[in-house]
């Protein structure tokens, strides 16, 4: 299943010749949901490197995310460190549903993920002002959760085919929310913004920049979720939902920018498995990891 997913994504990457390798780390800190942690540190790492957290898609793993995306190759080029976490529960999806996951330091996967980030900052003398998160599908949903829970840690996030923070919330122990997946959870920008802000009550500091990607033909996490994500993060940044600029970087791509805080790519006639070659680079450029 994982191999088929990678083939559909069209992003199986041939590793470059390098002594650097993916390394598993244990005992990295509080980890209530028993996540596993792998790290890729390139041979030539920047002084005080940026740290990128890259949660995987459902049915995936950290090592599969490493093999099947371009982030490790880009780390070789630009000298940042990549964390590849893995879910160990049976369905291999990140918890973006439980009340514990949707509030800062309350438990579940986000606590283990932020432990990985903090461990990496210490171990690699990383730059705390250059910490980022990006993921696909379940990992994209977790990206939105992490920038809501830890706005003081992440400078930016990039979500590929996700849903707004809090959209998948359940109270019955289920990790799947069909109504949200089908694009039927519709709220006002203020309501979505309040949900994101409620993850860390009382926080008044800077909020992470957000890049969003979604295919119009997505039949897993349907396209209306894209508009709801835009509503959420523009409201969090106190911006209008009217873009400040619109362009077409590729014929079937529409990119809308909302000041310099939110960037949203709509991909015409593209389904759920949308991360093709070059998209990872655009995320890295949005983060600024391509610059010293």
TrEMBL record:
<keyword id="KW-0732">Signal</keyword>
<feature type="signal peptide">
    <location>
        <begin position="1"/>
        <end position="19"/>
    </location>
</feature>
<protein>
    <submittedName>
        <fullName>PHB depolymerase family esterase</fullName>
    </submittedName>
</protein>
<dbReference type="InterPro" id="IPR050955">
    <property type="entry name" value="Plant_Biomass_Hydrol_Est"/>
</dbReference>
<dbReference type="Pfam" id="PF10503">
    <property type="entry name" value="Esterase_PHB"/>
</dbReference>
<dbReference type="InterPro" id="IPR010126">
    <property type="entry name" value="Esterase_phb"/>
</dbReference>
<dbReference type="InterPro" id="IPR029058">
    <property type="entry name" value="AB_hydrolase_fold"/>
</dbReference>
<keyword id="KW-0378">Hydrolase</keyword>
